Amino acid sequence: MIGSTGGTGPAALIVTADDLGLCAEVDAGILDLVRAGMVTAVAVLVNEPHRPDLSPFLAAGTSLGLHVNLSLGRPVAPAGEVPSLAGPDGCFAGGPTDTTSEVPLGRHGGRRETPVSRTARGSAGLARGWAMEEVRRELAAQVEAFRRLAGRDPAHLTSHKHLAEADPLLFEVFLDAAAGLRCPVRTRGDAARRRCCERGIATPDRFLGDVCRGGYWTEERLARELGRPAAGVTELMCHPGRAMAARPGIWYAEEREVERQGLLAAAATVTAGRWRGWSLVGFESLHPAGREGE
After folding, report:
1. Crossing angle, helix 24-35 and helix 254-267, to 10 degrees?
2. Among positive and negative, which fits the CA dihedral 219, 222, 227, 229?
3. 154 to 102, 284, 294: CA distances (angstroms)
4. Are 219 and 1 in contact (CB under 8 A)?
5. Which of 41, 273, 291, 293 could pair with 63 in a Cys bridge, judged by C-beta atoms 3.0 to 4.6 Å apart?
6. Residues 92 and 73: beta-carbon distance below 8 Å
7. pLDDT tier at 213 (50, 70, 90 boundaries)?
8. What are the residues whose beta carbons fall under 8 Å from the beta carbon of 197, sequence distance 6 or more?
9. How far apart are CA 231 and CA 29, in angstroms?
């Protein structure tokens, strides 16, 4: 069995908005979609200077999770405790090189973003560059920061720029954290889902989402890719924002408004938690995957 349901059962859709906590415009765009009934889960950044207000999301019963971040801004742990992760300026440094992105990454208000690959690939270079015990320390610090913000444990774990799946050693650290929290994780590929199954960690059966110039989730793309409900649990990742202007180092800005508008248009047909034959759910609906041999 791969994932939590093996692709069986009713068609369920988790709509996850990434990057809550990046800036006020992103927070506002995500909240619009939670209130419209279209976004069911939110991935929260906890290391940015902007502190998100989680109270409206908690009141709405949104599935709130930690967006593990090892590439943007500064570590939550003291820099002296994670020296392999931080550069001389105190911001995240190292990691794999982005060889696929058409858009250069840079600085955002003095906060350097380390370029990372958009494809999940095993890279011994990442393991050589980062001390895995320091990654564990930083991940634990981010979990504690989330608890201070939300007053509870994260309901799920995702990773900024999908970094968790970029290296096998890093993925094991990520899964160790999920196992300790007894929470589901995001996976993009079958190999990662199989590993979750082996470890008894819940994950959706399939994944949809990306970024592109002009905005990824338009109303037309939503209708095209989700026109036929699929059995099991599908996660749709999105990046909405409300009127976010371009800024240095963050190229996906105006595109967030495009996604917000596309998802708001889709939300007009949400009825009683259902949309076009999909049941809209949170990560809490997932059950731990069975271990091999069970």
Report:
1. 10
2. negative
3. 33, 11, 27
4. no
5. 41
6. yes
7. very high
8. 1, 2, 3, 289, 290, 291, 292
9. 29
Residue type, 116: V
37, 279 in Cβ contact below 8 A? no
Which pLDDT score, from 0 to 100, does residue 233 have? 97
Residues 39/15, Cβ–Cβ less than 8 Å: yes
pLDDT tens profile 3-62: 454 555 689 999 999 999 999 999 999 999 999 999 999 999 999 899 999 999 999 999
- Residues with Cβ within 8 Å of 131's Cβ and at least 6 positions away in sequence, in order, are 84
The full set of domains in the chain, from first to last, is 11-72+131-285 (3.20.20.370)
Strands 274-275 and 278-280: antiparallel
